[in-house]
Amino acid sequence: xxxxxxxxxxxxxxxxxxxxxxxxxxxxxxxxxxxxxxxxxxxxxxxxxxxxxxxxxxxxxxxxxxxxxxxxxxxxxxxxxxxxxxxxxxxxxxxxxxxxxxxxxxxxxxxxxxxxxxxxxxxxxxxxxxxxxxxxxxxxxxxxxxxxxxx
Length: 151
Known about the structure:
This protein is an all-alpha fold. The chain contains 5 helices and no strands.
């Protein structure tokens, strides 16, 4: 595995996480989000049994969310010969399914958020599609700008 490609994957994974996080926070700030709190904050809250002050909880949630997004960006860069928007979207859908089938039930929200509202499934799908599209676009663009043999 080329370390430069892996680095680009981590970088574009973090950038894609910024894109989805901005939309997520806009949803929360405007009251349009169907989730009671940002899901990364809910995960950290559950992991720590609510024992962290809010600033520490939010800081840890942000760090973990960006680390997770960067990790999967690196994984995509490592696993495919040529990154595309389509492959990024497939990764986004895969990560969304993990959230829907494992994370949300663990949080007590039910599969696909059905224990709260089915709107959670739709809202989080949109966010993960944004993540995948930005990631795939960024990696494909980065590959085109690297001279042949340099990656």
